[in-house]
Specification:
heterodimer, A: 177 residues, alpha+beta, Alpha-Beta Plaits, 5 helices, 5 strands, elongated, B: 147 residues, 4-stranded antiparallel sheet
Chain lengths: 177, 147
């Protein structure tokens, strides 16, 4: 699978093996969340048997390498009123893909933006997920994306989610432990 | 939820600064104090406004394989197929979407081989051929829901 990086960033170095094993321990320690402490790095350092400074350095390195995106809050977007989401899908010319993918990904209302393969019976190669507080709002976002793509887009659709059938989040698979 | 809660939610979606005293840094930024921010964060998590606070890992970079796949499930069989997928640990999430391809799910497996095997198993189990759409390039990942 291709590395998960944004095109605007230089290709980061893959983490060294010992760093990966520390990162896996970090995942196990913080899967449920980072403890709400005044000094979270001191707590993490104790668990990992590292000094506070080494712990902070490790986190900075993992973030620079892309293994940690950020240490952040994940809102319950339904509770915040974002009840509508649409998976917009676009058939764009391959040559324009890098520019257009970056352009769609840069829109503040797009949460995920990926290139995916075309298949028999599936012509769309660019995916952008949009979220909003009403159906009208996500329709409006779709319209804006259509405008941004212009003639480079041959066909498009928006698949609106109507029900969550399963949501477990990503668990650490046994082979990675 | 008051104004400071909102500013805290918005700020924390962008990430805790990786500095020696992160909560004090945030308190200065938001014109508050660190113990108040931690109390509020605790409350927002308890209350379910926030689902999680912690490091967000890009598991791709640590190993593991993922794909987005879809099934076109005949309406009368929809619930039964949803249950079959719900029972599979490889299925991380699954959404109904209004389209001929009406079931969209993410597979998380230890390897590419395991992804192929799982897709084959789904095909045998359901008699439906999945549309396999692994990501080939990432242009953006980042949920941000300003409040």
């Amino acid at each position: 699978m291709s590395a998960c990086i944004s095109l605007s960033e230089p290709l980061p170095q893959a983490p060294a093996p010992e760093e990966t094993s520390l990162a896996l321990r970090l995942i196990e320690l913080t899967q449920a969340g980072l403890p709400l402490l005044e000094d979270p790095w001191a707590w993490l350092g104790e668990q990992l048997d590292l000094s506070v400074e080494s712990t902070l350095d490790l986190l900075k390195r993992l973030q620079a390498e892309g293994a940690i995106r950020r240490i952040a809050a994940v809102p319950n977007h339904y509770r915040l009123g974002y009840r509508h989401n649409g998976m917009t899908v676009w058939d764009v010319t391959d040559a324009d893909m890098p520019r257009l993918g970056a352009l769609l990904g840069a829109q503040p209302f797009v949460s995920h933006c990926y290139r995916r393969p075309r298949r028999p019976g599936w012509r769309y190669n660019l995916f952008a997920m949009v979220h909003g507080r009403s159906r009208e709002e996500i329709d409006c976002y779709r319209e804006h994306l259509r405008y941004l793509l212009g003639d480079a887009c041959a066909a498009e659709d928006m698949l609106v989610s109507s029900r969550i059938l399963k949501k477990t989040g990503l668990r650490l698979s046994p082979s990675l432990r | 939820m008051d104004d400071l809660d909102r500013r805290l939610i918005n700020r924390l979606q962008l990430g805790l600064p990786l500095v020696r005293q992160p909560w004090q840094a945030l308190a200065e930024e938001l014109d508050s104090n660190s113990s108040d921010l931690l109390d509020r964060l605790h409350e927002l998590l308890n209350d379910g406004v926030l689902t999680r606070f912690g490091p967000m890992f890009d598991i791709d970079r640590l190993g593991g394989a993922f794909t987005l796949a879809a099934l076109a499930v005949p309406e009368p069989r929809f619930e039964a197929v949803a249950e079959q997928l719900a029972d599979m640990p490889e299925v991380a999430h699954n959404y109904r979407r209004e389209h001929a391809w009406n079931m969209w799910f993410v597979l998380a497996c230890p390897s590419e081989q395991a992804i192929s095997d799982t897709l084959l198993r789904i095909e045998r189990l359901t008699g439906l051929v999945p549309l396999n759409l692994p990501k080939e390039e990432t242009y953006h990942v980042g949920l941000y829901f300003p409040v």
